[in-house]
Amino acid sequence: MERVRLALVGCGGMARTHVARFAKVRERMELVAAVDLVLERAQAVAEHFPGARAVRDYREVLDDVDAVLLVLPHHLHHPIGLACLEAGKHVLLEKPMANSERQCLELIDAQRRSGKVLMIAYCMRYHPIVARLKELIDSQAFGEVFQVSIWTEQLTQYPADHWAADHRTLGGGQLFSHGCHYIDLLLWYLGRPLRGVHLGTKLGTPWMDWEGTSNVCIEFEGGKLGYHFGTWGARGTRLGYSIHAHCTEGMLEAQISYGDIMREQEGKSRLLFLRSGKEELLLESEAGKHTENEMAHFLDCIHYGKQPLTDGPGSLQGLRVIWRLYEAEHQGIVADLRGLGLDQFEP
Ligand SMILES: NC(=O)c1ccc[n+]([C@@H]2O[C@H](COP(=O)([O-])OP(=O)(O)OC[C@H]3O[C@@H](n4cnc5c(N)ncnc54)[C@H](O)[C@@H]3O)[C@@H](O)[C@H]2O)c1
């Protein structure tokens, strides 16, 4: 099988995470170009891949590649994603898909017209612990799930002139930028949402122009509840990144990454089952973002014509939930979250 020729567009912070895992998929994929407006960043990536070019403008390399990985500021996801699909390239696009509903619909439409793969890089879905939790919830291995709670506590601070410090380029606040991973997971675990609330605050994160801390509560079909607490203002943490799934026979606890107090356990993610007087380790995996699994799935979609697990329509549904939650928060009401999937809602 031919190796997929890939260009990495955007060689900043998250790109380094992707690049660190490329070696694990090198039999199926070859980095032929690294692109960044800041040429030194592109060069710093390209020098690790023999023969790879470093350029400032992605249009210079489109003729030489089959696929692009876009790791760009959010306001560039739409124009550059669209241009790459229209040029007939497969696109792995960092989350969130785009900053407005119209932009997302245009990307979905461009994907359909091109017949190429458009996959959104919701890397948490490809984390072994997160994926195993989904299997256990779906198979009702520990009874019926009735509450999933997700915590993400971190200190994330951008300089005032950074694109992520401005909601016009970020697309919103912490919930939109980072919480989109966890709204996506709640929908994946719990199904169709009915209603919900978001309360956010800028307190504690004065470098943000929208909220830096979010609390989300959502009711799903069948009476199941989802909760998400995310902050970019944590000066200390115990839960770090954690998921608790309460089921009728016990609780499943995913410790994705650990907080300050549990430092001795760093380096591993764990899935545990807890029931009064009993704690069982179900799965342990390397901590960190498993972007090699995400890339392997993208390559499978290209090679075998599979539909991405994290495709455009599913990703748009999660963003619609976030936009409805923001609107309802401004109006001081509970958001109606029914009918937000592309199968349920025609634009
Ligand atoms: N999946 C995750 O866990 C995760 C974590 C962090 C960031 N991200 C996502 O990755 C993306 C990038 O975030 P980041 O933190 O790496 O940002 P960053 O600012 O560190 O990197 C963005 C890079 O894009 C470059 N760039 C800007 N305009 C460009 C253009 N027109 N052409 C080429 N390069 C251009 C910048 O020079 C910069 O190097 C965002 O979508 C973000 O949400 C995902």
Mean pLDDT: 95
* Number of helical regions: 9
Ligands, ions, cofactors = nicotinamide-adenine-dinucleotide
Task: Supply Rg.
Answer: 20 Å
Q: Structural class of the secondary elements?
A: alpha/beta
Q: What is the spatial order of strands in the main beta sheet?
A: 14-13-12-11-7-10-9-8-15
CATH topology of the largest domain: Dihydrodipicolinate Reductase, domain 2
Q: Report the count of strand segments.
A: 15
N-to-C CA distance = 40 Å
Whole-number total of structural domains: 2
What is the CATH level 1 assignment of the largest domain? Answer: Alpha Beta
What does this structure look like?
With about 350 residues, this protein is α/β, with parallel strands linked by helices. It has two domains: about 5-115, Rossmann fold (3-Layer(aba) Sandwich); about 125-290 and about 320-335, 2-Layer Sandwich (Dihydrodipicolinate Reductase, domain 2). It is about 30% helix and about 30% strand. The strands form two sheets. It has a nine-stranded mixed beta sheet. It has a six-stranded parallel beta sheet with strand order 3-2-1-4-5-6, sandwiched between helices. The longest helix is centred in the last third of the chain and has 20 residues, at about 310-330. The protein starts with a strand and ends in an 11-residue tail after the last strand. Nicotinamide-adenine-dinucleotide (NAD) binds next to α1.
